[in-house]
Write a structure and sequence with these properties.
The structure holds two protein chains of two kinds. Chain A is an alpha+beta fold. In chain A, 25% of the residues lie in helices and 33% in strands. In chain A, the strands form three sheets. A seven-stranded antiparallel beta sheet of chain A has the order 7-2-8-1-14-13-15, with helices on one face. Chain A has a five-stranded antiparallel beta sheet with strand order 9-10-11-12-16. Chain A has a four-stranded antiparallel beta sheet with strand order 4-5-3-6, with helices on one face. Chain B is elongated, with a radius of gyration of 18 Å. The chains are: A alpha+beta, B alpha/beta. Chain A: GO terms for molecular function: transferase activity.
Chain lengths: 299, 228
């Protein structure tokens, strides 16, 4: 069992409340996943700039880490620390050099995500505590995806928490379990992908990133996953401009969607919607199995 | 409405609410305010009372009901009215998966759509869905009646024993050992009575088709191995 929440804002006036609403939804899903939690928040994209999220920069290493970054990206770079996660905003041309610097830095520093607008945070503990650690309630943005984990396929660690980001501005959260992830992981490794964990959901994320990197659209990649992924799943996949939902053909993992003029919300259970504004007038429905649902902001 | 007894879940716990309703000597009409999608609302009732859930219900609403008449004003989550013995449950909105699962008796009416596996393993319950039902509805149904005014998803009535399934719209596919049957005068009368009790007056009984068990898989026969 795991809990998933997602919130896609149509009304820009709600953007300052994105984090607060997401944190409320996440907390309600604690009973579905009390061991760890995580969330991706999208927003603040600026032309020519890339955001990179890393985690595990210890206080004793901060000065060395930031000095190294400044040496690559210069004065146009900015660094924001939230607990053990750090968001680096830098000119896009320096992204690959900074990625190599992060990968080589050591001391437990791990790359988390990168893209125009994604910031991704995750950790072990009750969802409420994880959200408070990073001040999710204070974040703003255009859309967000969150996950509360009850581990089945791999250990309870920060790296094993969702969302998993395996491509630019992409992330995936998963409720369920895959049964062919080891085979698929080996195939994807042969295609050049790297995986950080033994987790089945990371393989699903990598699979989608791989297809997207070959030029497929998100809905095409998701449709292909129906044939290639074996197991139980409800996926929510975040991209720079929106999110998509897919359930496996058996659809025993729950999913419910609420839509108003102001937002589209996704959750594993209706309870998570109870405090959303205007939920009483929302259209509430259950997504059909094997059908890709997709909401996007105009680019 | 003035003599309705009110339970406000903004002010009491779910357990307090359910224990007020569960007594065999409970009487009258009740309303549950602020349900907010909580699970296990009005479960295990055992007296002929009327209960209105004034909003959205979570998992297993009205489960194991005996005698009570329950109305859910909004949508219901998975397993609404599961294992109902008698009484009735009405969902004014949509129901999620496994509505009426394993029910032995009583009447479940869903004014909207029902999700996957509606009436799974039903054992005598009567279910009327005004909208459509999802895949594998009436899976392993043993007795009772499922009426679908809209469409039915894949594998309707898979591994069916003796329940009757009436569908007015399209059936995407039939499950193993489920087949269309000729509608007898008794079947029509049974359907009409059920539609009347469900308050569904917009569709004539003769606009439905009847599906039931082909009875080929009751006992294992090696020639049927591929059908399971």
């Amino acid at each position: 069992m795991c809990g998933i929440v997602g919130l896609f804002l149509k009304n820009p006036d709600l953007q300052p409340e994105l984090g607060l609403l997401t944190s409320q939804m996440l907390k309600v899903m604690t009973e579905r996943g009390p061991d760890s939690a995580g969330f991706a928040v999208y927003g603040g994209a600026r032309h020519g700039q890339t955001k990179i999220t890393v985690r595990g920069v210890a206080p004793a290493q901060t000065a060395l880490f930031e000095k190294g970054l400044a040496g690559i990206a210069g004065p146009e770079m900015s660094v924001t620390c939230r607990n053990d996660h750090t968001v680096i905003t830098l000119p896009t041309e320096h992204e690959q050099t900074v990625r190599r610097f992060i990968d080589a830095f050591g001391h437990g520093v791990a790359f988390v995500s990168s893209g125009d607008s994604i910031e991704l945070y995750k950790g072990v503990g009750l969802p409420e505590d994880v959200a408070a650690r990073f001040d999710l309630a204070g974040m703003r943005g255009t859309h967000a995806i969150g996950h509360t984990r009850m581990a089945t396929e791999s250990a309870v660690t920060t790296a094993g928490a969702h969302p998993f980001s395996t491509g630019p501005d992409q992330c995936l959260v998963h409720n369920g379990s895959l049964s062919n992830h080891n085979t698929l992981r080996r195939q994807l490794v042969r295609e050049g992908l790297k995986f950080a964990t033994e987790n089945d959901s990371e393989v699903a994320a990598g699979y989608l990133s791989w297809r997207l990197s070959r030029g497929e659209r998100l809905d095409e990649a998701l449709t292909a996953s129906l044939a290639d992924l074996d197991g139980f799943y409800t996926f929510v996949v975040g991209t720079r401009d929106g999110f998509a939902v897919l359930r496996d053909p058996v659809a025993c993992k729950p999913a419910v969607i609420a839509e108003t003029d102001d937002y589209v919300a996704f959750a594993s259970e209706y309870r998570a919607f109870a405090r959303l504004p205007g939920i009483g007038q929302a259209t509430v429905f259950e997504p059909e199995p094997q059908r890709v649902y997709h909401w996007e902001h105009a680019a | 409405m003035s003599n309705m007894q009110e339970i406000d879940l903004a002010r009491c716990t779910l357990r307090e609410a359910n224990s007020q309703l569960q007594g065999e000597d409970a009487t009258g009409a009740w309303v549950i305010r602020n349900p907010q999608g909580r699970h296990a609302l009005a479960v295990g009732l055992n007296a002929p009372i009327d209960v209105m859930i004034d909003g959205q219900a979570g998992y297993y609403a009205g489960g194991m009901n005996k005698h009570a008449n329950i109305t859910i004003e909004g949508n219901a989550g998975p397993g609404v009215a599961e294992n109902m013995m008698s009484g009735s449950t009405r969902v004014r909105g949509n129901a999620s998966m496994a509505a009426g699962a394993t029910g032995h008796g009583g009447l479940l009416v869903i004014d909207g759509d029902a999700g996957a596996r509606c009436g799974i393993s039903m054992k005598g319950i009567e279910i009327v869905v005004r909208g459509s039902v999802g895949h594998m509805s009436a899976f392993m149904a043993q007795s009772g009646t499922l009426v679908v005014c809209g469409d039915a998803g894949e594998a309707l009535g898979d591994s069916l024993y003796e329940a009757k399934i009436f569908v007015r719209g399209e059936v995407r596919s039939l499950g193993a050992d489920c087949e269309e049957k000729d509608m007898t005068a008794d079947d029509l009368a049974c359907l009409q009575s059920l539609l009347d009790r469900a308050g569904v007056t917009e569709y004539p009984a003769d606009s439905f088709r009847l599906y039931g068990s082909a009875r080929r898989l009751y006992h294992f026969h090696v020639d049927n191995a591929a059908a399971y």
